[in-house]
Amino acid sequence: QIIPPHDVGIAQSILDNLEPWPQSWARDACSSSSLKHDPLKEVTNAYFARLHEESIFRGTNGKTPLKFTYSPMHGVGQSFAVTAFETYGFQPFSSVRLQAEPDPDFPTVPFPNPEEGKSALNLAMETADTAGSRVILANDPDADRLAVAEKQAKGDWRVFSGNEIGALLGWWTFENHKRVAADFPLSKVCVMASTVSSKFLQTMANAEGFQFDETLTGFKWMGNLTIQREEEGMKVLFAFEEAIGFMVGTQVLDKDGVSALAAMAEMAVFLEREGKRLSDQLAFLYKKYGIHVNNTSYFICHDPPTIAKIFNRLRENGKYPTHCGEFKVKFVRDLTTGYDNSKPGNKAILPTSSSSQMITFTFEDGSVATLRTSGTEPKIKYYTEIRLPPGEGDMASAAARLKSMEASIVNDFLQPTVHGLLPRQE
Questions:
Q1: Which alpha helices (DSSP H) does 209-363 contain, by range?
Q2: Per residue in 381-395, pLDDT tens?
Q3: What is the C-alpha end-to-end distance of the chain, expressed in Å?
Q4: Which of 23, 282, 301, 364 is 20 to 30 A (C-alpha) from 184?
Q5: Average pLDDT over residues 16-45
């Protein structure tokens, strides 16, 4: 997890040493070296020992009638998920047999990313229906992300977004903290989310009195900030990004799909004992703290000058838009230039980078929209969220307002027809 200035120094060291050392070709030296050591067993045992400490209801987890189905999506997660369930005291889950073993060809899915939703979870749903499971847990192939789906009362499957899972796990880790450390000052409790993720945890933190930290996208930022916060005497409970990445606790200072899987399963079992589904608890949280509805999408653009033109038009030498359709702009944060008119001196607190584009608009009603370029793909991404105060509106009206804001972002800010942008293929 490398952040500036170390990343630049490492990159320069690589450039300074492009020619391999002569001894690099002595492959037999690896097997005979006294330094040779395989730490897998040691690290695995230490990991699950820490995971064992995280379970709150191990004694009753195995008594639940709730059933789970799991898929590693042709990746490496199967054995670790099995051990995680054993560590938490659960009954074994049903496995998606055709996806249980590592296979680099990923033959059963169009794209091996559970973030794609139902299209990636079709086999898991079939397996769950056969096994009578109500909850599906799925890792991506390297098991650092977690997808969750739940069968609803009417028999349909609901796939939770990364923001919805983040809200649930944020609530769960906070509740567990209060159970085991009731005397710990809330002012020293902290949760985190990336800047393009839902602001639900920020809303919850403001209501409950603990701290919320916002970081740039990527767990290198959240992991390093966690170290800093712990050095300051704070307790970091949870961090997440909307792309189904979750850091539950601090045993791994990175997104980790296995510890997230165990925590989510324990939460589901706890709620089942109270006669609730995960979806019921999410609805309760929205009722208590206010509805948060959000969406993420993108356009494809293979022409860097066009991308620069789109963003430069928005900043227009410091004269940012005052409206986006019916939505009045309150604050603008431009992490390309370092401008943020919500901060003293209009200076952004988050790190800035002139090599990438990222502008966030906060509107008068508390809604937020962020536009950014991808660091690895020719995409202009946009992230939108509508936030309502507790007791106001409903999901249908919030979703309609979100749709209106998205249309304004696309038509007024991105102008895909004018700039020849290619829409996301659903």
A1: 219-231, 257-273, 278-289, 304-315
A2: 999 999 999 999 999
A3: 32
A4: 282
A5: 88
